[in-house]
Amino acid sequence: MSTTLPLPAPARATAPRADATARPGGDVLTYHVKTLGCQMNVHDSEHMAGMLEQAGYVPADPADAAADDVDVLVINTCAVRENAADKLYGNLGRLAGTKRSRAGGMQIAVGGCLAQKDRAGIVERAPWVDVVFGTHNLDVLPTLLERARHNAAAQVEIEESLKVFPSTLPTRRESVYAGWVSISVGCNNTCTFCIVPHLRGKERDRRPGDVLAEVEALVATGAIEVTLLGQNVNSYGVGFGDRHAFGKLLRAVGAVPGLERVRFTSPHPAAFTDDVIEAMAATPTVMPQLHMPLQSGSDRVLRAMRRSYRADRFLGILERVRAAIPHAAITTDVIVGFPGETEEDFRETLRVVEASRFSSAFTFQYSPRPGTPAADLPDQLPKAVVQERYERLVALQERISAEENAAQVGRTVDVLVAQGEGRKDGATARISGRAADNRLVHLALPVGLDPADAPRPGDLVTVQVTHGAPHHLVADSALAPGGLFRVRRTRAGDAWQARAEGREEEHAHGGSGGACGTGAAPAGPVVLGLPAVGRPPA
Length: 538
Fold this sequence. Notes:
Structural class: alpha/beta
Helix content: 25-40%
Strand content: 15-25%
Distance between the termini: 32 Å
CATH topology of the largest domain: pyruvate-formate lyase- activating enzyme
Shape: globular
Radius of gyration: 23 Å
Number of domains: 3
CATH architecture of the largest domain: Alpha-Beta Horseshoe
CATH class of the largest domain: Alpha Beta
CATH superfamily of the largest domain: tm_1862 like domain
């Protein structure tokens, strides 16, 4: 996944702030953050953008950002798969010429998991990089940029353990109607294919009060949806000895006034307990959606992966979830071609995928990551074998996804309109968003609808599904005579409109407990100011 931050054109500052950072000639310095990787990286990039804006940098115009015509370009990297490294170094190679030819000069900063892994090796391979920083010290980015300018030399700073909990940092939210909330960082598992624990460190949990404070702050600025993030989100509570803490947190977050949708990602099957299912079913604001990584359907391969569950346990979790939440949409991750995987092992994966009836799946071809135990295992599979199995898995899941989505035809769904979800919306005259179960829905507007009455990002639209495709639903009920099309304009839509029109106001959420209005989103970083006393112990 590749995500580019920060915000779309209407949300960007149109004039420099009085305290904006400027180059010697007096022009304001612009920035752009590119994100490669998972939701954790996307949220980290929001922190990077927040810190840069707090330091006086201004978001680049979208056209300039697309052309890399910026004063500071930050690349937030992933290290999970080999192609992520290829993508980074390919980007850096292209940026060498861009940097040389840019009249005003340019700084390039590399952060994230690959920076934590490769460290000074990034500057050795790409000497035109100015700053390298890791996953444990996001807060140093503005300082390193200034130091690199002053010293005219690359600055590399990698910490071995977390120094500042990311959620205490300034944040430039990508969206005003939906937001990420980290409840933990790091991972205590030892999956043989994964380098994340080495790069993100051991799991550290936030205090429940801090999580709730951030959720309440988001709601106060207009958000009606939050997604709780953790490397193993349902392991939450290990830091303070409560194995049922995640279920309790779900109920507490779901009860925050004004919040309408709660999601979470990603849980680990080994730690998934029935009290979490009960909390999901009993809390109306927790959405009927679950991302549950399978990785393999072969018990032998799961043992080799050090995944501490087996196929029957995995299928049992799905059965209990569907018994409690009949319309739940369940998605997954699957790795094909793990070292030593036999045709029989792969057939077991196909069997479990068929039985699981996932609404969609993220499928990956195994790639060895240096530093992981699996990279040194014998019986690494030939590329041709892995590719052939991958294509069979994708074909199976495409069929299942098409069948599951076709079964949605005729259902009434509430769609939270989103910005940027429908790439073809302009050509199809539709708008797009997510149903409660997180399925992507493209929906038609009634003929002759006054543009002033059109749903905005953040508004909710009730429609009927008219078509199901493998990767999306179509809801064109508005085009039928008397067809269902009902709009609920929300304060999240109000906040989006205020941001788009440049009417947003600054709000500070400090430890002093100052109140915040709900009518608009903040123009600058959302500074949550969570109390230091609430941080988890080292």
